[in-house]
Amino acid sequence: MSEIIIDKEFEFFLPPLDEATFKWLEDSVLEYGCQQPLVLWEGILIDGYNRYRIIMEHDIPYTTVSMEFESRDEVLIWMISNQVSRRNLNPMQLSYFRGMHYNTDKRLVGNQCGNNRYSSNLELPHNEAILEYERTSKRLAEHYNVSRATIERDGRVALGIVAIGEKSPEAKRSILAGKANISRKKLRELASYTDDKVSEIAVEIEEHRFDNDRNASSEVDSNADSSNLGANMSGAHNNGSGDDMSDILPLSETVIRMTNVFHNELRLAINGSDKDLKNALRMSIDLLEVLYLKL
Questions:
Q1: CB-based contact 133:144 (threshold 8 Å)
Q2: What's the pLDDT at 20?
Q3: pTM of the prediction?
Q4: Taking the domains of the chain in order of start, what are their residue ranges?
Q5: What is the DSSP code string of 33-67?
Q6: CATH of domain 1-68
Q7: How far apart are CA 182 and CA 209, in angstroms?
Q8: DSSP labels for 90-126?
Q9: What is the pLDDT of residues 102-143, one digit of tens each?
């Protein structure tokens, strides 16, 4: 049997089992063996990390099954659907998975959508990308039976949790276990914080010193997702009414929210390919042009 590859990103993506649940799983595997096959993609383990840990520790026989996906993002979407469908998730974990699903789908849209199963086979013109983001949030809202606003806020929550996890895996585990006193609003704000500030909060969470009330921020809450914000702005530009921008949002708040949107889209793209970064920059330019023409 070929060696199984452990991908740290995929492994870290999944919330760990609590101690009691892991003990139950370990006892079950020890008594009945590993009855479910481990799931692989190109030799990488994508389902069964807890079972793999147990069978390696106790030298228990196992089987594997391979699945085919076109990209890591499609693997992530499958992993999310798999987790949501079969685990009893707490509210924070549900927000995290819905947000990761949304952010991953947006990344696929940003890659021109031609190779993902949710879109047509044609490349999207840049001026339609924002509308595709809007369709993405609507589709996922229907899929998870929540509002579009919830999906878009969850996308921000997921970004915040990922940012914390990059500084402290233990802090991320604490948040997803529901043990950290941090609100979704604070997590949504984290994506616009400096690395030093995120590190400071991560350490406080890890050491159980973080006080959400004490750290309550007066900053503008950047709930407005790029799809929602872009749709509002595009609608204002296209309605021909000549209304002032303040009919949508005060100008200063619009600029602040746009800045947060740009920051977070670039944050998603910066570790990707040149194409990811180019698409994020193009989306930013398009939104800025809409605002410029409206003034």
A1: no
A2: 85
A3: 0.65
A4: 1-68, 72-295
A5: ---SPEEEETTEEEE-HHHHHHHHHHT----EEE-
A6: 3.90.1530.30
A7: 11
A8: -HHHHHHHHHHHHHHHHHHHHTTSTTSTTS-SSPPPH
A9: 999 888 876 644 444 444 334 444 445 566 767 888 899 999
